[in-house]
């Protein structure tokens, strides 16, 4: 497997609290990785560091062999990184189609066109409608995004995350707050997109059923460090992992 | 569309039916409409509330005055005022667009007050509290091509009308362009826009400079009308005018600030007949209207559908979160 994202010895403190404490991690292409760990383990902080929402205090991050440790967010997006958010983050007052058009126009370098009409950007509109077809929201394309159901807003957020055509896409709890039916839909979609578009997904997830059914590789974090990583079968048997998840009873 | 054409036709016919005062008032309305449409690109479309637009308005007004006093050429004066305001907007924009919300508002307010004190104190350049006087309503002249005398109020009205309509039409194109969409996306969620690949600060700066150019044009158009420029054009209460016009007309509608500019002068004109403390009563009316019509007067006519939605089928009005959305906003962790 080719090396894709390489994180080396990064650390991030918030005051006295070491959110990330010397993490080294390599994410190869075409391997769906799940990052798990208890609350406060540093999973979301790790995504924030990798995608540029935060800069690390120390350590380096390379993407496709290029140092991106302190690169601005929008440059990382254009290099092929993307993400979704743990807390719903969509353009609530725009239509569903416009939500997807924003990243599509940006990737095509058309986001700053001051004079053409949006609906005359035919290539971008076609591409955005194709993405809406993939996520199953084509019928809702003219609805206000803020008026969608919670599950549909989650799908839309996934759509915004994949619209920049990323090679590596972080999904922060993509199934949180969804009904079992909606959850199955989101998981199917992630599987389909990894296969059809060769996108490499890294998901942060609390639901162990989701993690073990989806991931090729699991990274377990605890207290800002990587506790263990390996294929699902190996992680399932890992004693230290069982301890932090299942509590004292195993250690007794 | 028919209504719009009729309105524009009526505006062009106005000097034939109206006297000097209504024409003077119409020019004031057009100037405030240009000022407010620029302001609302920042406020309604980009989510940035500027309290310092009077600074750019004043730079446009003084810039136009200085040029007209030196070279009596109207186009040169207007272009000079707009350019000066644009340069000031680039400088202040670079300093201020890294901040949002109240921090941005306070920075722009401080800038506006700074321009106000310069207008007061720099007597050699601005004339201090006397201002600049005797500014000619210079001819509209392109050397060797045309020279039109616009010194009569009715003639100058057409200059203001044509330039205002062009400016408003250009803004209409802009807000419906990809640039307008990108700005609205930043307004809705800065972080989501950044992670959609949008360099957010650059786009905020673009919006800020365009709003500054519109404020500069509005200020420059005022100078030949009044033949004088005095420090009150830079006062914070001038910054408040587009804010009030936009709130009156409606922040979520393109026409809102234009309708609001009309209402602003109508309400003011009626109140000043009864009391010189018009601003107090004006404030009362604005507060009552904002409480009664939170989306501005234009919200009465809102078509309850999104832009370029196929006509006929209705959907939720943009800008008004539904009960479901409000619930979802707090139900997740």
What does this protein structure show overall?
The complex is a heterodimer of chains A (about 250) and B (about 325). Chain A is an alpha/beta fold and about 250 residues long. Chain A has one domain: Rossmann fold. Chain A contains ten helices and ten strands. Chain A has helices at about 45-50, 75-80, 95-105, 120-135, 150-160, 180-195, 210-215, 230-235, 240-245, 250, and strands at about 5-15, 15-30, 35, 60-65, 65, 80-85, 170, 200-205, 215-220, 225-230. In chain A, the strands form two sheets. Chain A has a six-stranded mixed beta sheet with strand order 6-7-8-3-9-10, sandwiched between helices. In chain A, strands 2-1-4-5 form a four-stranded antiparallel beta sheet, with helices on one face. In chain A, a hairpin with a 2-residue loop joins β1 (about 5-15) and β2 (about 15-30). Chain A is globular, with a radius of gyration of 19 Å. Chain B is mainly alpha-helical and about 325 residues long. Chain B is about 70% helix and about 0% strand. Chain B contains 14 helices and two strands. Chain B has helices at about 1-15, 20-45, 55-70, 75-95, 100-120, 125, 155-175, 180-190, 190-195, 200-225, 235-250, 255-270, 280-290, 325-330; strands at about 140, 145-150. In chain B, α2 packs across α12 (about 255-270), α3 packs antiparallel against α4 (about 75-95) and α7 (about 155-175) packs antiparallel against α10. The interface between A and B is large, with 54 and 46 residues.
Structure characteristics:
heterodimer, A: 252 residues, alpha/beta, Rossmann fold, 6-stranded mixed beta sheet, 4-stranded antiparallel beta sheet, 10 helices, globular, disordered C terminus, B: 333 residues, mainly alpha, ABC transporter involved in vitamin B12 uptake, BtuC, two-stranded antiparallel sheet, 14 helices, 2 strands, 2% strand
